[in-house]
Amino acid sequence: MASFMIKPAHLRCVLRTGRLINEHRTRNTLCSVRSYATEGDIRIPKIYTKTGDKGFSSTFTGERRPKEDHIFEALGNTDELSSAIGLAREFCVDKGHTFTDQLDKIQCILQDVGSNIATPRSSARESHTKRTKFTAGPITDLETWIDAFTAELPPLTNFILPSGGKSSAALHLARTVCRRAERSVAPIVRSGEADPDVAKFLNRLSDYLFTLARYAAMKEGSEEKIYKRPQ
């Protein structure tokens, strides 16, 4: 997808990924760099805008909604998911795992997930939907990765408890956050406000994180705890 610029007047897209998102969407990522510079004038923007002080935020389409709205709940959950994956990634880097580039890509895709959620179809113009459309490509990537890791893992014969070392446990934590994000996105997709592939991606991502947690434990030689009925 070709890059684009959003005019300053349209910079009210608040994605609760922790920052104001605007301008310059590439094929797989929506960058979060703001610029109010005029010709010959370079200014450093402030991180705070004060526009949410009364408990309302804006969607990418310009709607003002309460911060407890289901759109912002879903955006917060996807933001938390990206943070959880980022933490897990750091543990994986420390252990020298070679799959961390996949986690980098997933975090970028989650930005795209957020931009789609923040563009409710009921108030979106065609220009909005073109910029934030989410497609099935990332889902196929996840399925390919899951199949590759699964081929190296021993068969799953018991319930696995989150364990297996710091990398594995952190990936399990990210998996549970992913499930919550999926639950919050499901009603938005059912109502037609977001692309169906957003929900499919989150569903597949939780499977990926579970598989990757097992794979990380195996590679580190760490024992996974098996569920045993308490005596």
TrEMBL record:
Residue span, Cobalamin adenosyltransferase-like domain: 47-216
Gene Ontology terms, MF aspect: ATP binding; corrinoid adenosyltransferase activity
Record flagged with keyword Nucleotide-binding: yes
One of the GO BP terms on file: cobalamin metabolic process
Gene3D superfamilies cross-referenced by the UniProt entry: Cobalamin adenosyltransferase-like (1.20.1200.10)
SUPFAM superfamilies with a match to the protein in the record: Cobalamin adenosyltransferase-like
Keyword ATP-binding: yes
Keywords attached to this entry: ATP-binding, Nucleotide-binding, Transferase
Catalytic activity: cob(I)alamin-[corrinoid adenosyltransferase] + ATP = apo-[corrinoid adenosyltransferase] + adenosylcob(III)alamin + triphosphate
InterPro entries recorded: CblAdoTrfase-like, CblAdoTrfase-like_sf, PduO-typ
PANTHER family: CORRINOID ADENOSYLTRANSFERASE, CORRINOID ADENOSYLTRANSFERASE MMAB
Summary of subunit composition and partner proteins: Homotrimer.
Chain's role: Converts cob(I)alamin to adenosylcobalamin (adenosylcob(III)alamin), a coenzyme for methylmalonyl-CoA mutase, therefore participates in the final step of the vitamin B12 conversion. Generates adenosylcobalamin (AdoCbl) and directly delivers the cofactor to MUT in a transfer that is stimulated by ATP-binding to MMAB and gated by MMAA.
Family of the protein in this entry: Belongs to the Cob(I)alamin adenosyltransferase family.
Name of the molecule in the record: Corrinoid adenosyltransferase MMAB
Species of the source: Sparus aurata
Taxonomy of the source species: Eukaryota, Metazoa, Chordata, Craniata, Vertebrata
Gene name, Swiss-Prot/TrEMBL: MMAB
